[in-house]
Write the structure tokens for this entry.
Amino acid sequence: MNEVDWILKRRSIRKFSGQAPSDEQITKMLEAAMAAPSALNLKPWKFIVVQDQERLAELRKALPFGKMMAPCAIVVCGDLRWFKKPAMERFWVQDCSAATQNILLAAVSLRLGAVWCGVHPISRLEKPVGKTLGIPEGVVPLNVIFIGTPAEEKPARTQYSDKNVYSDKFGHPWKG
């Protein structure tokens, strides 16, 4: 498969076997995450690898759409504690989202399944996730990515629609 095929193969996997990713696979996903672009190269991300079954259960309890029985999760957080210019902290969501997408794509390339469950900006989700993981004030959990060996397979797909693409100016159809 080429790189675009890996992107098209990325699907949200919600059913997992009990087999956890190896430490090497987790490290590879984190390396991919930290290769993401970042505004002014500030890299505001922090990652929490969760493998403790009690903590995973607490995360599932806190997240209404996070009931997947995955053996591992990576929680992507934005560290806002050290921003000196308030305008710069506005880019942390984009930076951490790019890191998240890289984790999801790396999981596919490692033949793992993963699903992204949003946390921020909903405080009723941020608070229990933060408490469960001991996240300090000023560090915000953006999402929880449940990861494991998939127990389901979904076909690759594209959701391309030329109705969403314009040429030179909004409203001028792309003829690509």
Q: What stands out?
A: Residues 3-164 form a domain with the NADH Oxidase fold (CATH 3.40.109.10). Residues 92-109 form the longest helix (18 residues).
